[in-house]
Amino acid sequence: MLIIIPDMISREAALELRAQILNAEWVDGNATSGPGSALKKKNRQLPEASPAAQTAQAIVAKALGNNELFLSAALPHTIFPPLFNRYGPGETFGTHVDNAVRIHGGSGTRIRTDLSATLFLTDPDDYDGGALEIEGPFGDVSYKLPAGHTVLYPSSSLHRVTPVTRGERISCFFWMQSLVASTEHRSMLFELDQSIQALTVRHGSTDEEVLRLTNVYHNMMRHWAAC
Ligand code: NI
Question: How many angstroms is it from 206 CA to the middle of ligand 1?
């Protein structure tokens, strides 16, 4: 289940965020790599505890909490604080899988990574290369989304960032544990929720069948949610 969240933040807000962090101190991206990734990864990252990162994290966290499409698709339990990375010419991240469990350095909280997300902070015309490629059962997909858009994908997918050959690709990325661990279950809940939303607009929230389907949705959540 790959889901695009258009305008997670506005294009203007994305470019402003990019401008704010551009001149902060960046470090080697291998700060958050698993052992298998370190050799494949060549990029830079904002240190997660830096003031620039924390200000930017707060902006992204607020946008996530207010985005109904994101909440419906991800059913987030815990979101690892968003991180920021940067790829200039020659920088890349070869095919890898994200670690299944991550420990937040500040709090020691452990999360199981069910979903990974990239929020693009650079317009695609401003760099060449730098596509996020994700492998899946129906073949590989490739994303270079407009600034402010987000792609949400199962953390179980092999993925890579192709080498940048011009410009600089700056993005926000984050992992989250979902209330529903199974991608298949989460995907069904998402489809059902989207249909209920559409039917509610058409028939009103007090419509008997809308209520019945809403009840089914919540009962499925009761079966599958791990709080
Ligand atoms: Ni990754």
Answer: 43
100 lies in the same domain as 141: yes
Looking at the fold, whether 124 and 107 belong to one and the same domain comes out as yes
Amino acid at 18: R
Task: Note the pLDDT tens digit of each residue in 67-80.
Answer: 999 999 999 999 99
DSSP secondary structure, 151-211, as one string:
EEEETTS-EEEPPEEEE-EEEEEEEEEESS--HHHHHHHHHHHHHHHHHHHHH-TT-HHHH
What average pLDDT does the structure give for the chain?
A: 95
Residues 153 and 106 in one domain: yes
Whether this model's pTM surpasses 0.85: yes
**Ligand 1 center–CA 209 separation, angstroms:** 42
Going from the Cα of 217 to the center of ligand 1, the distance in angstroms, rounded, reads 31
